[in-house]
User: Which sequence fits this backbone?
């Protein structure tokens, strides 16, 4: 039986649709205005900006230079560590923290569901069924406001205010990804595993050398989406990483800790957006492809 | 007894076999594959346990432990800075008094959160659906527009809030002064315009969030269904209301229910707004974040734990009621039940 065609062919745009197009075009421009404003302002001098908020003057790189200036007059972000001491971060230090936090958390958030998805798909024990049911149930159960308890738990475990501690915090299998991995591994024919086993491969080499490459696409999508989300996340560092602020958190506290230098702040905004935008530009199809999968499953 | 002798016999046999292999300079095999299946099962089990150990440990500590601690915490009252405590119901009494009192911060926060949820959901959902239908039908410039509208979803909300704050509070007064010649306050500083501005901000940016999910769900509809409708003379409006919407109903109801789970606790960008320019309206998420970050000693944690439990209970009731109602309203209820089965 032939598969029904899923996607519609491009159709001629009727007049009603042109009206929607007009609305969409205006909406898209309006959405972009704040980001364009940030981009333009980041190349303006603070005096120009004070005179006129909207405007265009001779472009300058001073704001970016200030951010990357490691001398005393450059950008400096002050934090009070959990020991009560004062610590200073320059912009590069914040970026390093952001990368460590985002890459580690994204890796943890990708690997853990993958492991659980594989084990539950490959080994049909009763416990596997229980785990998958648990994921479904806990996804439907709306538990809110447990942050204070999480803070206390991380303090008790000694992982509070440490970046590796945050990786452990995000090493969770609860969520959609476990179900996606489970479905992906189940769809792989068992013949691969049996052939590898006959050739003397152990369970670990079957997992690492045969099964993981087959779901590498899913893993890549999960990693990229998680990275973008953790890169932009300010709430986790706000609650759990006092001594290791990320760029997003620094931007949140910019006015209080650095000062009201709007042009510097806009330059920091642009720099915070760059990694996410680069990933989006490189993997546009993967972003939308993943959403398609989620949409159909929804 | 029989098994015992059999084991001894096998061990002796293995021993001599290994010696003979060593003497003939052959590498001895690890074990003779007498009970191959059993060994494989054992190895599988060891692998299974080892692989799941860390995820389960994490779950045990960071979900079971955290929620158990949350329940205990809600019945505690710290009596000194060393976190010595007494058991009490005071936290719940405080929460209920504040939630059902008159114009308390907690009540105002709850009201604002619900209002923002209702507005963002019931204004943005229809608009998002129309936009999604446009993309699903692949009308002019669909792909380019899709990409542009997706960009705010990948940019940090701190960036969006900061830029919006500068435009609304610093740029708007200058423009108004230029146009009218009258000095005007910023939209967020002015207490009269603050709430409508923040509501508009939330509606404006949440509209761009869900359209890709909807259009993807629409692309899952069998092409032959809409083709049949077109042959029968259905126009686009009829197709949208009679074919597309009923077919993506399960996803729509899932979105509504999932959104409801965060409705009472939503922050709606208020913490970021308060940090950007000190102007925000009280929402439940903002109340939590502000309270927790200001308390460096953890003395007020029991209050927030109790509040979290009360809100979780309220959210559970809301979510399961909404789910039941939405399931009843499903136009293809019987078919979807069959698919689930």
Assistant:
């Amino acid at each position: 039986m032939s598969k029904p065609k899923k996607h519609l062919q491009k159709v001629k745009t009727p007049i009603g649709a042109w009206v929607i197009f007009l609305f969409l075009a205006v909406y898209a421009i309006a959405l972009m205005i704040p980001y364009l404003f940030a981009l333009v302002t980041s190349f303006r001098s603070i005096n120009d900006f004070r005179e006129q908020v909207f405007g265009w003057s001779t472009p300058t790189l001073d704001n970016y230079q200030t951010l990357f200036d490691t001398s005393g007059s450059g950008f400096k972000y002050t934090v009070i560590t959990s020991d009560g001491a004062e610590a200073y971060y320059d912009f590069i230090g914040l970026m390093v923290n952001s990368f460590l936090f985002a890459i580690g958390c994204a890796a943890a958030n990708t690997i853990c569901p993958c492991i659980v998805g594989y084990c539950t798909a490959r080994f049909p024990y009763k416990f596997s069924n229980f785990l998958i049911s648990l994921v479904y149930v806990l996804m439907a159960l709306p538990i809110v406001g447990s942050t204070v308890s999480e803070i206390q738990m991380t303090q008790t475990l000694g992982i509070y205010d440490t970046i590796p501690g945050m990786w452990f915090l995000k090493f969770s299998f609860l969520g959609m990804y476990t179900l996606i991995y489970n479905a992906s591994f189940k769809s792989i024919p068992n013949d691969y595993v049996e052939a590898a086993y006959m050739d003397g491969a152990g369970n670990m080499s079957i997992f690492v050398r045969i099964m993981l490459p087959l779901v590498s696409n899913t893993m890549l999508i999960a990693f990229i989406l998680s990275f973008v989300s953790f890169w932009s996340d300010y709430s986790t560092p706000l609650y759990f990483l006092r001594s290791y602020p990320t760029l997003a958190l620094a931007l949140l506290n910019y006015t209080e800790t650095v000062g009201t230098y709007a042009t510097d702040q806009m330059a920091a905004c642009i720099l915070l957006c760059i990694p996410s935008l680069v990933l989006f530009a490189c993997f546009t199809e993967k972003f939308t492809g993943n959403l398609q999968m989620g949409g159909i499953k929804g | 007894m029989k098994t015992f002798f059999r084991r001894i016999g096998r061990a002796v046999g293995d021993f001599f076999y290994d010696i003979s292999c060593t003497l003939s300079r052959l590498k001895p095999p690890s074990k003779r594959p007498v009970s191959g299946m059993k060994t494989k099962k054992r190895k599988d089990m060891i692998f299974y346990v080892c692989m799941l150990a860390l995820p389960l440990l994490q779950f045990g500590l960071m979900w079971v432990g955290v929620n158990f601690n949350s329940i205990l915490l809600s019945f505690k009252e710290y009596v000194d800075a060393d976190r010595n405590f007494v058991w009490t119901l005071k936290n719940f009494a405080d929460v209920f008094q504040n939630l059902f009192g008159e114009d308390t911060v907690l009540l105002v926060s709850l009201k604002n959160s619900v209002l923002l949820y209702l507005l963002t959901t019931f204004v943005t959902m229809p608009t998002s659906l129309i936009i999604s239908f446009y993309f699903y039908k692949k009308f002019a410039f669909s792909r380019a527009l899709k990409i542009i509208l997706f960009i705010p979803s990948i940019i940090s909300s701190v960036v969006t809030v900061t830029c919006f704050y500068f435009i609304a509070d610093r740029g708007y007064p200058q423009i108004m002064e230029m146009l009218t010649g009258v000095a005007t306050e910023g939209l967020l500083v002015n207490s009269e315009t603050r709430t409508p501005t923040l509501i508009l901000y939330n509606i404006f940016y949440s509209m761009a969030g869900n359209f890709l999910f909807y259009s993807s769900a629409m692309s899952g509809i069998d092409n032959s269904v809409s083709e049949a409708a077109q042959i029968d003379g259905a126009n686009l409006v009829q197709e949208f209301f009679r074919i597309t919407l009923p077919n993506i109903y399960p996803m729509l109801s899932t979105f509504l229910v999932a959104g409801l789970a965060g409705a009472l606790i939503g922050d709606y960008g208020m913490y970021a707004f308060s940090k950007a320019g000190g102007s925000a309206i009280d929402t439940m998420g903002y109340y939590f974040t502000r309270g927790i970050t200001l308390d460096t000693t953890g003395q007020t944690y029991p209050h927030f734990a109790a509040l979290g439990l009360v809100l979780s209970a309220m959210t559970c009731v809301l979510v399961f009621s909404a789910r039941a109602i939405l399931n009843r309203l499903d136009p293809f209820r019987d078919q979807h039940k069959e698919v689930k089965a």
Remarks:
- Chain B has a mean pLDDT of 85.
- Chain B touches chain A through 101 residues (CB under 8 Å).
- The domain at 90-340 of chain B is CATH 1.10.3720.10 (MetI-like fold).
